[in-house]
# Entry
Amino acid sequence: MDKTMMIWQPERTTGIWMNVVTVGELSHCALGFYGGLWSPYGDAILAHGYGGSFHLWRNVGVDVDNWQPQKVPSGHFAEVTDIAWARSGDYMLSVSHDQTTRIFAPWHTESHSENRDSWHEIARPQVHGHDINCVTIVKGKGNHRFVSGAEEKVARVFEAPISFLKTLNHTSSQQSTFPGDLQVDVQILGANMSALGLSQKPIYAQAAYETPNRNGNEGMDTLETIPDAVPAELTEPPIEEQLAWHTLWPESHKLYGHGNEIFSLCCDHEGKLVASSCKAQSASVAEIWLWQVGTWKAVGRLQSHSLTVTQMEFSHDDNFLLAVSRDRHFSIFSIKRTGVDEMDCQLLARQEAHKRIIWSCSWNPFGHEFATGSRDKSVKIWTIEMGSSVKQLMTLPQFNSSVTALSWAGLDRLSNNGLLAVGLENGLIELWSLSVNRTGEGSLSEKSATAALAARLDPFLCHVSTVHRLAWRNSEKSADSRSMELASCGADHSVRVYEVNLG
# Structure
């Protein structure tokens, strides 16, 4: 409980056991270590802390003992509720009921015999006091930003500090990122945790070099004197101690307006609008709020549903917002920007689509077709006709478990082919090949869709309980690349990334 691991050894002459090595001293890790273990050869010790974190020290000294912390796998220790890829696919963000937001990225190390990237947790931007339900990364140029929603009535906006931007340069796939990302005007080095663990205060670059005055409380371990974070540029994947404290992002805005806990978030593809919804049991609470990125003003309140909106997604041309709900309906809103701060949002269609809760939805990247997935174990494919009415194109064959996650990836724009990933409540994932065909010309043209099962992922590779979210990576690979990457997260505490070969 004093946050240390100790090795004891008897003195040769007296036989008295003395503490010869002390490691740990995690001043911020509130509950210390729960247990420890020797390696088979006695050259390393492993500890585990509250929240499932591993801590490993190895004796790297030759003539004298020199115990140094080592890298260990890390991950969430509660349900992972949402994931999002960075706009260029450089990293992936996940949020969980373990009250943390984590960033995972492939890191290229020269020492590997194979020329493959290994995945690591490279930052923990948010460590919160509430379970986190949803997240969205703000697309569009400029600094990296995300919005997260937890079991509280406010959504919070976070912006990448300079220490993260510099660290990102050391990961493997950084060649693809916008040159404007490492902005000179990012003056924030990192963030500090507040005493209650709700807001994260910025640490400014110029202030980081001044010694803070602690009013004579130096060295006292009280709740009020939380140690200052020391954010820094990382040149290799960080260890748990660095992640838990020194990789926080500063919170830049709070979005107030919802009457209940935030449940779902999404961002348009231009990076100009964020939509949010909360838990609801009445129509007035179930409205969707639209926020303008940058000013973070509320620019729209969309009413359609009577129960919680479970997922939302903007079409790939940002003209439509699709929402699905516990009330078994989906809604489509047309979104038009009439001015700088003004939006014209119209409800185009509202339709009862399934017999049970609709958990998930996803747009076709190449058109105005979309899929909905429900607790009634079905997936339906729909299309917007003539810009106003919605028509059902097909229903996929019945699944043997509730459909809880969908993600549609485009393969070939000319033939309008795509791959729909379907995640189920039993943890399994299936890939369906979808093709949307257009027959006839002009106003008489009719759309039809065909679907075929492309792959069932090996159950040993899948989750062991509900799949909460699926997301295809926006890869900067060449167009003729025959593989894609699919990320998934689930109630079994895990985040997984699959490589899908299209050959």
In short: Confidence is low (pLDDT under 50) at residues 174-184, 211-225. The radius of gyration is 25 Å. Residues 16 and 164 are 48 Å apart (CA to CA).
